[in-house]
Amino acid sequence: MTTLYQFEHSPFCIPVVAIFKALGTPLKIVNTPYADRSEIINLTKGAYYQAPVLVDGKKTVFESTPESQDVARYIDAKFAGARLFPEALDGIQSLVISYLENDVEDVTFRLSDPKFIDSVKSIADRGMIIRHKERKFGRGCVGEWKKQAPELRKKAEQILSPLDQMLNHTPFLLGETPVYADYLLLGIIGNLTYRGYNTIPARLTALKAWEKRISIFRYKN
After folding, report:
1. What is the mean pLDDT of residues 156-173?
2. Looking at residue 201, which CATH number applies to its domain?
3. pTM metric for this prediction
């Protein structure tokens, strides 16, 4: 059994769960405590403390750099038969993935994180999460994101609009079947709308239809 160590609301863990579901491949899910990452650190022999981490038999897979897709590419090679990263789409998919990771997710997580952090009951756990964010984004960043929420929502709609335009013409981002970029977008949308914290902007009707479509999509063997 393949096991995923994840943070449930992570935009990079949600795609892994969705891909395994679409493939019809069993996956054991372990929700890692946000404030205690010792299990992940032990699994990766101290090399990593983020998620996702995939354990497949004796193989432990995690991202080698912030820009890598090591986990997704391992899944593609082992389970998906190159359907996530078809060679013919390499160039265009790289561009879309870069846009999703660097432009879209950089805005959307700032809308979801403050609400998620407020939901954490343990003061110690909440403090650890805030400390992690502040180490990367600066002291008081979470409070600033709360204040900026109206502007961030406008910006999120703006940066999601080109994707909505694409989906007016194809069922999925790059064609008739979903590739990794689709699942990455699903993860970003899943993080944005986690527990109903936010919604997809109302005018992005093609994106809403795509979300329903990809949620029920199943690859044929």
Report:
1. 98
2. 1.20.1050.10
3. 0.96
